[in-house]
Each structure stands twice: as C-alpha cells, then as structure tokens.
Amino acid sequence: MPRTTSFRRLAFMLAATPLLIGSLGPRTNFNERLLAAQNRERAMVQVPPLAWDEDLAKGAAQWAKHLSRTGRFEHSPDAPGAEPQGENIWGGTPGYYLPENMVGLWAAEKRAFAPGIFPYASRTRRVEDVSHYTQLIWRRTTHVGCATSAAGAEEILVCRYRTAGNVIGEEIL
Q1: Is-above-0.90 flag for pTM?
Q2: Which end of the chain lies in a sparser environment, N or C, as judged by fewer CB atoms within 10 Å?
Q3: What does the alpha-carbon distance between residue 49 and residue 45 come to, in Å, rounded to a whole number?
Q4: What span, in angstroms and rounded, lies between the C-alpha atoms of 112 and 14?
Q5: Of 96, 107, 108, 91, which Cα lies nearest the Cα of 148?
Q6: Phi then psi for 66, rounded to 5 degrees?
Q7: For residues 95 and 155, is the Cβ–Cβ distance under 8 A?
Q8: How far is CA 44 from CA 52, 83, 121, in A?
Q9: In whole angstroms, what is the distance from residue 153 CA to residue 82 CA?
Q10: What are the DSSP calls for 89-128, one per residue?
C-alpha cells in the first residue's frame, strides 16, 4: 500500500475519532441498556424477558421529574381505578452512574433473596432488603418503562412495571 494512502486513512481515522468516541459515551443507548440489564437478571432466574413500554416510560418520566422538583424520594401512589403498576426508584450523583450500575444496585438485593411467596422471600426476614429485586424478577411482569430526571441535587431513575410485582401472597418465580 502506498505511503500516501496509509497517511490518508490515518488522518481520516484521527478526524473521525471524536465522533466515534462520542457515540460510545456512558449514556448512549440508555433505555436499551436499562432493559438489557434487567433482562439479564431475569434470564439468570429463567423468567421471560421484559418488553419496553413507552406509556410506562412516560409515567416514569413524570414521577422522576416530580421527585427531582420536590427533593422527595418515595414511590408514586396508585392512580384510583387504574391497574396497579410496579415501581423501582433509584437516586444517585447526576451523570455518574451507568444504567447497568443503577439496575445493579437493585439486583444486588438477590444476596438476601429466598424464593417463595411474597413478602416471605428474604433471608433477613425484611422485605425491604429484597423488594427491588423481586419486582425486577417477578415472573408475571411483562413490560417496563423507565426514565431519569436530574433537575435537583440527585439524578432519579424510575422504572414502572406491568403487571405489578410484589403482590402479597403470590409466588415470585
């Protein structure tokens, strides 16, 4: 290969590098990565994968914005007469965490998980030690939609689930 051709290729690659690096940023394909991280956890316990739902994501975005605006960190109330939705929330330093890290904090609760009937699914006997994880792997849940907001001091992630999990008296897996 002539030297000028090699030089041109090298010059082109160097010029394109900022574009390539930008497309590989920590927030690239954020929603797809959130979904994939959750589905990896579900695959480990052999439950069907979740599908992304834009309506759930819109509701999650509204609640994430509300939490950012108010500085509160709480689950949303169920809408009267509406089908209940499951919900996981997460908060952390804005822009610092990858989507896999966010889901990973919920998934880390599996160390306290014991298969069985909800809420008796925790080795610690404390449902709050496993409730994010149980929603994540709930067998009857089929759809998820998530959104973040960083309007306040914390970045907030809200994921909404249909069919809701963590139903008292039901088997998780």
Answers
A1: no
A2: N
A3: 11
A4: 49
A5: 91
A6: -60, -45
A7: yes
A8: 19, 28, 17
A9: 32
A10: EEEESTTTS-HHHHHHHHHGGGGGB--SBTT--BTTS-GG
**CA nearest neighbour of 170 among 107, 59, 86:** 86
Instruction: Name the strands in the sheet holding 51-52, side by side, starting at the edge strand that comes first in the sequence.
Output: 51-52, 143-149, 155-162, 86-92
Q: How far is CA 173 from the centre of its chain?
A: 20
Give the type of residue at 94: P
Kindly report, residue by residue over 2-13, the tens digit of the pLDDT: 554 443 443 344
Q: Are 122 and 129 a contacting pair, CB within 8 Å? A: yes
159 three-state secondary structure:
strand
pLDDT in tens, 87-118: 999 999 999 999 999 999 999 999 999 999 99
Helix (H) or strand (E) holding 88: strand 86-92
Q: How far apart, in whole angstroms, are the C-alpha atoms of residue 94 and residue 114?
A: 33
Distance between CA atoms of residues 163 and 56, nearest Å? 11
